[in-house]
Amino acid sequence: MNTAKIELHLHLDGSLNIMWAYKKALQRQVIEKDTSFEQFYNLLFSNNGAHSAQSIKKFDLVCDLLQYKEDLFDATYDLASRLNNLGLLYAEIRFASQQHCKKGLSQYEALEAVKLGAEKAMNDFPIKIGIINCLMHKGDSAKYNDEENLETIEVTKKLLGKTVLALDLAGFENNCDFKEYGYLFEKAREYNIPYTIHAGEMSDGSHILDALNMGAYRIGHGINCIQDEKYIEALLKNNTPLEVCVSSNVKTEKNYAAHPVRYMIERGLKVTINSDNMIFSRTDLVNEHNQLRMIGISDNTLMNCTYNAIDAAFCDMETKEYIRERIEKGN
């Protein structure tokens, strides 16, 4: 059975076409000119599926590749094209506009370039694309990059529409008191900007409660909900969708059976299946579905996760109906 596929949690910088990225890194002098493709590949491949402060540094390299409007446009278009070729019907691509201003771009220009790349892809392919702009954890306090995060909210407000859909909070989850970021989401609510929050991925499941208290509509990862029954009960009470990224969180031995996704589904949590970073985890959504089949998750369950994703998507009802119609028609 070819289960329909919807992607809600996918990072642009972590999902580049690796050959394109290598050539771009040489062109932009991000790496030494004598760096081989094999060496570059090894720089990007994360052999630790569980995120850490060190593994997140790999994002610095790929972000350095995406400091010009044309590169952001091309990377977004290329990713959407590859997702379409994989058979995806819809994908929400996230990136952080504040990470792409090292060479003179404004956050607005960076977000606009990604928006235009997505819209060109939607003109050329049947896949639908939404963009999520990420606020960032940095430093030892939410005030460390307060100015940049507030600007992220402002540019998202300006471009919010059918393509730019929402905000996220990403980065190293354990930098500081998670609740410090609450004021940013108060601003987002003031502007009627929907948002998801990375929470409960990096050791502390209590961040899930913090994210719910900050009004998160969805939770990125959320796998540490299994640490305490009260975390699961809170998610069930709120019917909060979880953006589960299995390959991203299975550690070096790639023991998919050890991932809590089966238990989360059994408990009735609103699980969606996603790939997170296609380079770092060497995966895509087709592989995620295949790996889950191998650990006993049925096609019917995978389809339920897909329908969860449609319900949880930040796109408008017209787009959701388009996706459902394509599923019903088998294309």
Plain-language structure description:
- The chain has 331 residues and is of the alpha/beta class.
- The protein has one domain: TIM Barrel.
- The chain has 14 helices and 8 strands.
- The strands form 2 sheets. It has a 4-stranded parallel sheet with strand order 1-2-3-4, with helices on both faces. Strands 5-6-7-8 form a 4-stranded parallel sheet.
- Strand 7, helix 11 and strand 8 form a beta-alpha-beta unit.
- Helix 9 packs parallel to helix 10.
- The longest helix is centred in the middle third of the chain and has 18 residues.
- The radius of gyration is 18 Å and the shape is globular.
Oligomer: single chain
The value of Rg in angstroms is 18 Å
In total, the number of domains comes to 1
Shape: globular
- Structural class assignment: alpha/beta
Helix content: 40-55%
In short:
This protein is of the alpha/beta class.
Name the features.
331 residues; four-stranded parallel beta sheet; alpha/beta; TIM Barrel
